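B., you asked whether I could sanity-check this one before it goes into the benchmark set. Here's the sequence:
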Amino acid sequence: MIADSADAPQGPAAQAALPREMRVIEAADLFRGGKEIAILHEGSIYRMKITRQGKLILNK
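And here's what the prediction gave me:
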């Protein structure tokens, strides 16, 4: 899900951390049930994965 600022996560911490114009994309929508995705950026492939602890790691 891509959310506009009106649909962005709620609460004081979430509101303070995100600029009003920033797009919010749910990790579940990116990963679609998987644990790793590839991101193509300026001709290079980056790998993003979800760790066992639920954190995100981005590697080139």
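One thing to flag: The domain at 2-59 is CATH 2.10.70.10 (Complement Module; domain 1). Otherwise nothing jumped out at me.
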